[in-house]
């Protein structure tokens, strides 16, 4: 007798999780109704988006009935847009899960095309994107498909499956969509990868504000987005996260203890007040290197033609954390405009940190106060590039990298013979 698949997989919870289920054209679309039912059983709120081709395989009415929500299929549908626009839908989603994902859809996504509702939504969402491919085995094995899948993986998109076996077309090989129960199990793991389970992570984010007088200060263009995304990604990976944030307009991330500070000195004090027991420290904040030597108690009047501000150096928070004994695994960010690698390597050595994440802030559409970013990671073992993507996805890729390096360092320390 065939074993019930649900007994074979660890089923987590998707309580309060908002999932857009994208369905593309393929015979495996018949499994999508069961997939919706299982996602809902796990606690998720599901909204279905179908491509035109998908509606040839399963009706929108069926998907509406099983999801309990209207089905979206047109990019420029005035009725649907007035209910929930494609951008609202993209913002609503914690995850966009495309199952089945056809070879054509995978190719479109790999090239960033947005010519229908589903591909537009996948480009626009800040949530995680996961695809469950389903296609003929030759199409899956085709070099073009494999290259497209490789591109998507590098962009932080998760690929679930496919499985191998007998196919609807009569062939046998890889390309079958995973069973709904397997897809649900992998989806629950998106929300807690567990790679940092049981660990404590401290993240700094945002700018600092160095007071000149009661109405003026020195600050910078950091919005806090990158640091908040890193804190959220670490929490998703199972860590207990503290975020020490300079002044930003952002809401505190969920599942993260957020402490708001203003100046570099306050950030330094707050970090050191919470550093005990921290396993990983990630300095994303754009900390002001200098502050006015003294802050005027009253607003400075514009009597003189020139005004000289004396600045004194702020303590280096990152360096001070790396100098602790024991020190947490320490990750620094580097905002550079030229000679990226050279400057970053100097920081790695000078600050005695484990890893440096460099962003090229000479480009106007990444880095400071932008939605996207790109990072070059350098440590003593080598370097790795995380391509341009939304900061929330980039942060997840960074956290995966940090988790691997952290565990490798711990394993190396544990295997060293104890000193006599
Ligand atoms: O906030 P966003 O708008 O999303 O923008 C993100 C970002 C561009 C601010 C972020 O990705 C980034 O690059 N942060 C580091 C910016 C920076 O200050 O770089 P730096 O090269 O000056 O500093 C190097 C490292 O030392 C950083 O980890 C910084 O946090 C740390 N530092 C610097 C000075 C200081 N006194 N104390 C520190 O801890």
Quick structural gist:
The chain has helices at 32-41, 60-67, 78-83, 86-92, 103-110, 117-124, 137-141, 143-154, 180-191, 225-236, 264-274, 317-322, 340-350, 391-415; strands at residues 18-23, 45-50, 95-101, 128-133, 158-159, 163-166, 172-176, 200-205, 210-213, 216-218, 240-245, 256-260, 280-283, 290-292, 311-313, 329-336, 355-360, 372-379, 382-390. With 420 residues, the chain is an alpha/beta fold. The chain folds into 2 domains: 5-189, 3-Layer(aba) Sandwich (Rossmann fold), CATH 3.40.50; 200-415, Rossmann fold (3-Layer(aba) Sandwich).
Biggest beta-sheet profile: 8 strands, mixed
What is the 3D shape?
A: globular
Helix content: 25-40%
Number of domains: 2
Q: pLDDT below 50 for ≥5 consecutive residues: which ranges?
A: 1-10
Number of helices: 14
- What is the distance, rounded to the nearest whole angstrom, between the alpha carbons of the first and last residues? 60 Å
* CATH architecture group name of the largest domain: 3-Layer(aba) Sandwich
Distinct ligand kinds: ligand PMT
Average pLDDT score:
91
Determine and state the CATH class of the largest domain: Alpha Beta
CATH 4th-level superfamily of the largest domain: CoaB-like
Approximately how much beta-strand content do the residues carry? 15-25%
The main sheet orders its strands as 12-11-8-13-16-17-18-19
Topology-level CATH name of the largest domain: Rossmann fold
Computed structural class: alpha/beta
C-alpha-based Rg, rounded: 24 Å
Number of strands: 19
